[in-house]
């Protein structure tokens, strides 16, 4: 049975998730859901001292993303409004596994399972990956104060974690198409031809009938 589109755009910090989500939403006339980032009061402290502030940071993100997922279900999907989001809540476990101490991760995992057990899943994922040079250039370009102290080692580990997670995601969710995009090669912000290529690719999946517009 065809499903109403719920597209999640994912990838490591700085890869351009929000910019791409906005362009997809505008092109297909979908509802846009943007991640709450800079409102997190712990994020700046987290990048200064990951070990000290990781649990507070991840719990804030989890609660806010859970609330946004409820909004997707009640305000959009139930009213037959397609959605594109610049994240999905499954990303929380990527970050939590990397940053939390073992005892904190056990607690966090239990809370995560309770909050997300009945939440809507995306029926298409767009995964954008890129090398460190590209990520740091785009982080520099958007100039967020809270990201000023991101360390290369952390960002590389995170990128590697994303690769591992997405490989596993495709194995465990064969019913959810994943569009992989090379952010080093495709600059959908600067070059219209790159954006057109992506929009055409997304449109071809929508037209297959697995999801409906």
Summarize the structure.
This protein has helices spanning 17-28, 43-48, 50-76, 91-99, 102-116, 132-142, 152-172, 192-206; strands at residues 6-10, 31-33, 83-85, 124-129, 178-182. The chain is an alpha/beta fold and 213 residues long. α3 (50-76) packs antiparallel against α4.
3D structure, described in words:
The protein is an alpha/beta fold and 213 residues long. It has a single domain, classed as P-loop containing nucleotide triphosphate hydrolases (Rossmann fold, 3-Layer(aba) Sandwich). The protein is 54% helix and 10% strand. It contains eight helices and five strands, in the order βαβααβααβααβα. The chain has helices spanning 17-28, 43-48, 50-76, 91-99, 102-116, 132-142, 152-172, 192-206, and strands spanning 6-10, 31-33, 83-85, 124-129, 178-182. The chain has a five-stranded parallel beta sheet, with helices on both faces. α3 (50-76) runs parallel beside α5 (102-116) and α4 (91-99) packs across α7. The longest helix is centred in the N-terminal third of the chain and has 27 residues, at 50-76. The radius of gyration is 17 Å and the shape is globular. The model has no long low-confidence stretch (mean pLDDT 88). One of its GO terms (cellular component) is cytoplasm. The active site is at residue 86. One of its GO terms (molecular function) is ATP binding. It holds the Pfam family dNK. Keywords: ATP-binding, Kinase, Nucleotide-binding, Transferase.
């Amino acid at each position: 049975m065809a499903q109403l589109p719920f597209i999640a755009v994912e990838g490591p910090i700085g890869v351009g998730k929000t910019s791409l989500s906005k362009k997809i939403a505008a092109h297909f006339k979908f509802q846009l859901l943007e991640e709450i980032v800079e409102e997190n009061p712990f994020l700046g402290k987290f990048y200064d001292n990951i070990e000290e502030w990781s649990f507070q940071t991840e719990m804030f993100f989890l609660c806010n993303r859970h609330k946004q997922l409820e909004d997707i279900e009640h305000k959009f999907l139930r009213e037959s409004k397609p959605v594109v989001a610049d994240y999905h809540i499954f990303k929380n476990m990527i970050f939590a596994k990397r940053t939390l101490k073992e005892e904190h991760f056990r607690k966090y995992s239990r809370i995560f399972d309770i909050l997300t057990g009945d939440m809507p899943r995306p029926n298409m994922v767009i995964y954008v990956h890129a090398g460190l040079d590209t990520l740091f250039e785009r982080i520099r370009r958007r100039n967020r104060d809270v990201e000023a102290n991101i360390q290369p080692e952390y960002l590389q580990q995170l990128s590697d974690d994303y690769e591992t997670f997405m490989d596993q995601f495709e194995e465990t969710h064969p019913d959810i198409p994943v569009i992989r995009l090379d952010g080093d090669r495709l600059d959908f912000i600067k070059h219209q031809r790159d954006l057109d290529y992506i929009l055409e690719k997304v449109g071809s999946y929508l037209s297959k009938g697995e999801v409906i517009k």
